[in-house]
Every structure is written in C-alpha cells, then in structure tokens.
Design goal:
Length: 495
C-alpha cells in the first residue's frame, strides 16, 4: 500500500452530490461532475491491504480491490483499469448502481467507516474511458460456433461479451426497442446516464456481438426455432414477473406497477415521449414497497413535480449501526441508508407525516378507496409489529391520486411462451431450474441471472453472466479459459 497509515490519517470522503434544489430540476446524475478525481487517490490510500481481504468474498465478481486501490493511490490508472476489467465487464455500471456489499466486508469497517470502494471503482472506469484504456477486444479467430443470448440486461450483456471475445458468434435478442434491459428502462437517468450504456454497447458491436431489438423470443420468433438455429442458447431474461398487492380497491384507476411507471419516465428522457402518460405531476403519490425500486419511483416522482410523495415500508425503521448479533461483519447489514432520492424527499418535505425522509416504516396497506369515476383517491394503512401483524388503533389514511407498487419480482415472465415452448423445468418459486453448470433440462440451453437465481443485485447479475459464458464455452469446445466467478448455488454471505 502507498500509505501504510492512510486508514488512520484520512477520513472517509464520498463523491459529493449536487445540491438538491439543482438536481431535481433535471435528469442528470446526482453527483458533482469532476468532484471525484481530486479526492479519490487519498481515499484509495485508506485501504489497509489486509492479509485476508474479505471484500473479495463479499463481492461475487471477486474484484481485486486491494490491488486497484493501491494502483489508484499511486495514480497508475492504466494498470488499475486492467486489474478492474479483469473481473468486471462493466465497472461504470456497478460503480453507480451496486449497493456495495464489498464495503460491508471491508476489514476497516470492523471499527471505522469503510473504504469508498464503489467510488474508487467508478473513478477507474470513468478515467479508463477518458484515456482510452478500454478499446474493443475482438477475437483473434472465430470458433465457428453460434450462441443466442435472450435478454440484454447486465447478465445477458456480460455473457455475450465474454463469449464474443472467446471467438463465438453471438446474437443478443431483446424484446424492447433498445438494448439494456432494466438498466435502460428501469433505472432512472439520475442514477446512471444512458451514455454509459451506449458506450459499452458500441464497444460490443465493434467486437462483433450482434443485437436484435424489438424481438420477443416466444412471440416474434419461436423459442424452438431459435434453439435449432444456434449451437447454444443463454436465457437471461431477468425476473420480471412482479408481485401483486391483493387488497380491496386494487382494480381502481391510478394504481400501477413500478415497472409500468419507470419505463415511461425513461422514455421521456430518451425523447420518445414529451410527457409520461403516468406522470406524477401535481398528484399525491404513494409508493408501496421500501426497496431500491421504490426509491427510484420516489426520485422520479419528485422530478415530475408531484404534490406529495410517500413511500411505505413494511419493515421497521432500521438503526444507524449494524446489529453485531444478527448481522455481524462482514455480512451486508440492514441499516438506515439515505439514498439520493430520500435525501431529496427529506429536504423538499414531500411527505410531512413520514417517519423519516419520505418513508413510513412498519406500514401495511389495508385497502384503496376511489371516487365515483373509479379513480383511486386514498390509501388506508395500519402499523404492523415485527411479525407483520396489525397494531390496533394505528390505522390512518393517505391521499393518493397515483399509487405505485414496488413489491419486487417472483421470477421470469411466462406469458411470452419462451419457457413453455422450450419445455423448461422450473423451481417451486418460479425460477428456471438448472444444474451445477448453468444448464437447463433442455440440451444446449443455459439459464443465468435473475431468471434462474431470482431477484438479486447487479454484481450478481454480471457474475452470473461471466460464469454462464464459461459454461457455454466449455459445452461448445470441451474446455474453457473464461473465468467463472460463481456457481449457481452460491449465495451472499449471511450470519
């Protein structure tokens, strides 16, 4: 390490965000442009270069974090980029979107604020693009084998890039009109501007990956036909079957799934629409669900000019520090976190009656009520205890002109016919069944990412893409030199 005392002399300093009043007027990323590089070398100096770096275990990609921390502290950006890209195809994505389980596993985090690993990663990735350290890497020779990848989210793109670089001819099939999956239409631009995505897609095109947009496998093209045309197929469609809220009044107008709402806002940013048909402008908005998708809806509704926005979380408000008994280091703890969207809602007082920022904790929805035209007008809720049972006398009503359901996803969507046409076996929870080599019950068909693992993080998605690529390469050629960072059975560290 460049500074053996850095972790003792340098306090943690994160990438500063733009002022709330400024950033809610646009859709640009929330961080101050250019403010990361002046601080990042000193932040990388805080890495202890510990003997057993648990950040490796906490990150499913196996990122070589102490190595590139040391290189950044010495401002050797080219080598840092090489070490970072050795384990991660898309560090500019994870550096912006990942909740950083690596930081929870940082040895320094035992008794101090962790190293800003996520910020260092993002700085390396951005500097690599600026300096031209990430040129396209087309294969030296082609294998003559063909692979279809269904889905263009982080899993599908990682698998496609790895297989293309290994010499196979790869085509990515995407049901939407643009490549990117959830990163394109689910993640708001204020979390990751789409130019980062476009840059990688162009790199992949130059390397030889083919893209087929507006093509839903199972509807626009038969899944069995696709299987017959390619030597192998990778299913990376994600977990898009959203969970419902079966309470009285659910059928009222104005109650929508988060993934009906967010794509429309993203299409406005893409220039496809002038105004979203589900715009929150002037409306009282209630978001049911306390996760990241709910926070994305919150930040979007604030930018659209909602009259008020409240987010309901069925869990009790967590504490500011990890519970060492139930969630000891180095596991990822459930603690109170203030995302950019929650900071905006707090400062703008979008929900004056909320417990903290815009959130009501330990809150469960009882029913919706509407007007004579069938439009939702209010949401009735009740507080719940640790067993999620209603607490008597705690009922309350919130005004609601727009309700957004952000309750997570149960598995891949089965309505397009892909699973039925191929005859794929499913797990009891609705995900695609696979063996230890990512192979399904159909020869030559592999499954990876949220479609098989279930709803997870972007780092797990990319790790699945890299691992399934190695499995497919081995199936096609008999052996593989591609890295396989995880097995299908691997799971995040828990107590």
């Amino acid at each position: 390490m460049a500074d053996p005392k850095g972790f003792m002399t340098t306090p943690r300093q994160e990438w500063p965000r733009r002022p709330v009043e400024q950033r809610v007027r646009d859709w640009d990323e929330v961080y101050v442009p250019g403010a990361l590089l002046p601080i990042i070398s000193k932040q990388a100096d805080r890495c202890m270069d510990c003997g057993i770096p648990f950040c490796h275990q906490a990150c499913p990609l196996g990122n070589l974090i102490p190595e590139w921390n040391d290189l950044v502290s010495r401002e050797d950006w080219r080598t840092a980029s090489d070490r970072l890209h050795a384990t991660n195809n898309f560090p500019e994505f994870t550096g912006r979107l990942c909740p950083a389980p690596c930081e929870a596993g940082c040895v320094l985090a035992i008794n101090q604020p962790a190293v800003t690993i996520k910020n260092v990663e993002c700085a390396i990735a951005d500097r690599a693009w600026e300096e031209g350290f990430t040129p396209p890497r087309p294969p030296e020779r082609l294998s003559g084998k063909t692979v279809a990848v269904i889905g263009s989210g982080p899993t599908g793109l990682a698998a496609a890039q790895q297989l293309t670089r290994a010499g196979h001819t790869v085509a990515v099939y995407e049901k939407d009109d643009r490549i990117g999956g959830l990163m394109r239409y689910g993640i708001p631009a204020f979390k990751m501007e789409k130019r980062h995505l476009e840059r990688r897609i162009e790199q992949m095109r130059t390397e030889g990956t083919k893209f087929r947009t507006s093509t839903a496998v199972g509807r626009d093209v038969s899944a069995t036909e696709l299987r017959s045309r390619y030597d192998a197929v990778v299913i990376a469609t994600g977990a898009t079957a959203w969970r419902e809220l079966p309470v009285p009044g659910r059928a009222l107008n104005g109650i929508h799934q988060a993934m009906e709402y967010l794509p429309l806002a993203n299409r406005v940013c893409e220039g496809d629409l002038e105004v979203s048909p589900l715009s929150a402008a002037g409306k009282h908005v209630v978001i049911v669900g306390g996760g990241d998708t709910g926070a994305d809806c919150l930040g979007t509704a604030v930018r659209e000019g909602a009259a008020s926005v409240t987010q309901l979380d069925i869990y009790a408000q967590p504490g500011a520090e990890r519970d060492e008994d139930s969630e000891p280091w180095p596991t990822y703890p459930k603690i109170y976190r203030l995302s950019a969207a929650h900071e905006e809602a707090r400062d703008l007082r979008t929900a004056p009656a909320a417990d903290a920022d815009a959130r009501l904790f330990a809150a469960s929805t009882l029913r919706f009520e509407g007007d004579e035209r069938g439009n939702v007008r209010s949401l009735h809720l009740v507080e719940v205890d640790e067993r999620r049972l209603p607490v008597p006398g705690t009922g309350r009503t919130l005004p609601a002109d727009l309700v957004l359901l952000a309750l997570g996803f149960s598995g891949p969507d089965q309505e397009d016919g892909l699973i039925e046409q191929l005859g794929l076996a499913l797990q009891p929870r609705g995900t695609i069944a696979r063996d230890d080599g990512f192979a399904t019950n159909v020869p030559g068909v592999f499954a990876a990412g949220d479609a098989a693992r279930g709803q997870s993080l972007i780092v797990w998605a990319i790790a699945e893409g890299r691992a399934v690529a190695a499995a497919v390469d081995r199936y096609l050629t008999g052996s593989s030199r591609l890295p396989a960072p995880i097995a299908p059975t691997d799971r995040p560290m828990v107590a």
